[in-house]
Design a protein that fits this description.
Two copies of one chain form a homodimer. With 338 residues, chain A is an alpha+beta fold. The first copy, chain A, has two domains: 200 residues, Ribosomal Protein S5, domain 2 (2-Layer Sandwich); 129 residues, Alpha-Beta Plaits, CATH 3.30.70.890. Helix content of chain A is 36%, strand content 26%. Chain A has eleven helices and twelve strands. In chain A, strands 1, 2, 3, 4, 5, 6 and 12 form a seven-stranded mixed beta sheet that branches. A four-stranded antiparallel beta sheet of chain A has the order 9-10-7-11, sandwiched between helices. In chain A, helix 3 packs antiparallel against helix 4 and helix 10 runs antiparallel to helix 11. The two termini of chain A are 26 Å apart. Chains A and B meet through strand 5, strand 6, strand 8, helix 7 and helix 8 of A and strand 5, strand 6, strand 8, helix 7 and helix 8 of B. Strand 8 of chain A pairs antiparallel with strand 8 of chain B, so a sheet runs across the interface.
Chain lengths: 338, 338
């Protein structure tokens, strides 16, 4: 992102940033923050990737009054809390400014432009967008990877657990391995250039908490071995751009069979996606969204149509997104100075 | 291996090979077949790599009398069976010639130049060596990867289960992922160029069967997630030559804590290896051998000395091997024509 960095430095050159001091200058930034697909079949809780679309728009403004305020939320149907400590973006921002000792004022607008509670990392997109925006607004005190723990605090506020498998790819782009949460160790591995993701986001809701609760807490060693064999191969496939191996590796015998029960018509839709040419398909995050990976835009679109048709038979309607893998994380949409 | 292939073609040019026909010409081949380290901490049952040393020597000769005969075994202390169907090399060879419809005679010598039942893939080395030798002797009807299932039959004869995590790296070299055994899908991923392996092979014996029996057959999902997070990162580390990440990823919370009990002083020896500069250390295969990985020969030797000293305190003596990662599999040591 050399051009973004250049823009950033140029703007900051006009507005000297002093940490821990209330700024008299007002400035604002508008960013896009991407939806993410976590788990990716065999990578339950340790793998995710970012999309070019959909995603959230976050507007962050310096304010004279100290503290963080969420001034506007759109596109959420009124379901998201405006109290910063209960809101993913607000809580992430609070964690960040606290660690900086920043005592200035920040006003946050969250424009949800993606489905909420759909398994596409909606809270992660907001949290990642907020800390990315603040980092740019406040002179980039943090490297992108160092923002991940703050965004994880947003996840904790939104769903009770500080997961990293959505916020890390949302912030870093591409596929990201979460090797460990304690201590945090995330490993960005980019993305094969031809990969295109189709997402079908059904108009049904399942809660992340419920979707986690139904999982078995103990599994067969033999199943685990199959799972980590597939995951090892999937990582090799991603790094070597081996699409055949990627296709063979996109298997999940542990989590998908259980969560599939929450999504009417999932098994048939997955079959339809593969028949339409997808390398593989699975449940995005804790669902109900379904993702499929293809190597051409044409196939990815055909897969989208196949998913719609297949789910229709089960009276499940939804929205299709076709997107490249986002390899840069959030993006600056605009800046303002007043 | 272009030079080996050239030699091979030249010899075969003089002795036309006719499948399924008893050959009147006699010819022989002597090969080296490498020891292997399976599991590699977090990669239980799905990952292994090959060593430059130690390894077995296999001599294979065409014979006038049809069928496979094991004419000589040395270095095994008399413990290995000479009946082909009970011997790893013999059984592997039988599986191979059967699939070819080859009805000629083959005489096999096995010279064990590595410890048996030590967790270094002794049976795999013999099985891989035998099928590699036969393939070269009979005009290379198979690609190296296609020899893996035959060598697995050798593993079945030796230990009851047709594992691939030793025979696949023994045949293909480097690190190999066993994505799936049914259907067989092995993924060679090479090796980072600076990696050096130190092996300490203690003079104690533990049976593979016992070492498998003591494992828990059910594990916590959370432990499995940690394990596959480490394995995903280890694969990325190997492919990207990221030695720091490799070091952080060499962890096994599932198998090692249980098998460590069979190796007196293991925990302390592992600590000593890391203190001496190893990236990490673990149990090789089902043990009792211990492997450690380093990035320089000097460190790898220091690690060897540290392992010896540490195990001495527990009255455990053994042999140290320091070896590069073998990235080519078996090697031809010589050929004879009579």
């Amino acid at each position: 992102m050399p051009s973004e960095k250049a823009t950033n430095s140029a703007n900051l050159g006009e507005i000297p940033v002093e940490m821990g001091v209330t700024m008299s200058e007002k400035s604002s930034i508008r960013v896009f923050s991407p939806a993410t697909v976590a788990n990716v079949s065999c990578g339950f809780d340790v793998l995710g990737f970012a999309l070019e679309r959909p995603g959230d728009e976050i507007v962050l403004k310096r304010a004279e009054e100290p503290g963080i305020r969420i001034t506007r939320i759109t596109g959420d149907g009124g379901c998201l809390p405006k109290e910063p400590e209960q809101n993913a973006a607000g809580a992430a921002l609070q964690a960040m400014v606290r660690s900086m000792g920043y005592s200035g004022g920040l006003e946050l607008e969250i424009h949800k432009k993606m489905p909420v509670q759909s398994g596409l990392g909606s809270s992660a997109a907001s949290a990642a967008g907020a800390v990315f925006a603040a980092n740019r607004l406040l002179g980039c005190p943090f490297a992108s990877a160092d923002l991940v723990p703050f965004a994880m605090e947003g996840e904790r506020a939104a769903c009770g657990t500080a997961h990293a498998d959505n916020v890390a790819p949302a912030l870093l782009g591409g596929f990201v391995i979460v090797r460990s949460r304690f201590p945090l160790d995330v490993v960005p591995i980019g993305a094969p250039p031809s990969l295109i993701c189709t997402v079908f986001s059904p108009e049904i809701q399942i809660s992340t908490a419920h979707s986690r609760r139904i999982l078995r807490q103990r599994i067969d060693l033999q199943e685990a071995v199959e799972q980590w064999g597939n995951l090892a191969a999937l990582i090799a496939a991603l790094l070597r751009e081996d699409y055949d191996l990627l296709s063979r590796s996109l298997q999940d015998r542990i989590v998908e069979p259980i969560r599939a029960r929450l999504i009417p018509g999932f098994v048939q839709a997955k079959k339809a996606a593969v028949e339409a040419g997808a390398l593989g398909a699975g449940i995005s995050g804790s669902g109900p969204s379904v993702f499929a990976l293809s190597t051409t835009l044409q196939t990815a679109r055909a897969v989208g149509r196949a998913l719609v048709r297949s789910f229709e038979r089960y009276q499940v309607r939804g929205t299709v997104y076709v997107s490249k893998i986002n390899t840069r994380g959030p993006a600056i949409l605009g800046r303002g100075v007043s």
